[in-house]
Amino acid sequence: MVLFLSFNAASAEDASKHVSDVDAANDGTQQTLNLNFSPENRSKIRKALDEYSRATDPEHKQIEERKRNMRESIEARFLAIDKDNDGSIDRQEATESLPQVARHFSQVDTNQDEVITLDELQAAQSRILEHRKIEEALLEAQKQQEADAAALAKRKSKQAVNSTHKSAL
Predict the structure, then answer these.
(1) pLDDT, tens digit, for every residue of 26-74?
(2) Angstrom distance (rounded) from CA 114 to CA 117
(3) 82-88: long-range contacts at Cβ-Cβ below 8 A with a sequence spacing of 24 or more?
(4) Phi, psi at residue 89, to the nearest 5°?
């Protein structure tokens, strides 16, 4: 689910509250997904959505547009949360407006200067996406190994049955 925030003359406080509400809703959605779908099923869903998007948009124009919109949305959210306009989010700003980021503040703050820059936030998002791809690849490899082992067991079983039939003759 991708949400886009529009910023107009509304106060930054209203925008921050909205962002906080969206984060809380997304956290609840993620918890629900984790409870209702196994990692294997989540991987299948992501793969099916990716294949569908490639089929309906072979040149990935829509995907690239959504990525651009997401980057712009992250930047807009970042700027709304940066109350002191210093180009960074401190732990307090993160706690008030981005609880998910606040819980992982030390991991997002890669240079350990106790503030998160927009670059660090975008890098963290990229790491999360990369980690997800690695998990999916490992899951796919595990499924392939299981399928190979099942096929081997089936062949051995068939060979055993055939040799038993030959011995009986």
Answers:
(1) 555 555 555 677 778 888 888 888 787 777 766 777 778 888 888 888 8
(2) 10
(3) 83/12, 83/16, 86/115, 87/117, 87/118, 88/115, 88/116, 88/117
(4) -115, 125
Q: Whole-angstrom Cα distance, residue 50 to residue 119? A: 26
Among residues 68, 65, 64, 74, the alpha carbon closest in space to that of 7 is found at 74
Of 44, 51, 47, 40, which Cα lies nearest the Cα of 146?
40
Of the candidates 88, 106, 89, 86, the one whose C-alpha atom is nearest the C-alpha of residue 97 is: 89
Own/partner contacts of 135-144, CB < 8 Å, gap of 24 or more, are 135/39, 135/43, 136/43, 136/46, 136/47, 139/39, 139/40, 139/43, 140/43, 143/40
Q: Which residue do the tokens 């991708």 mark?
A: 2
Residue 100 and residue 26: Cα distance in Å, rounded? Answer: 10
User: In the chain, what are the domain boundaries?
Assistant: 13-168
Query: Alpha helix (H) ranges present in 3-117?
Result: 12-36, 39-56, 61-81, 91-97, 99-103, 105-108
Binning the chain into helix, strand and coil, the percentages to the nearest 5 are 80, 5, 20
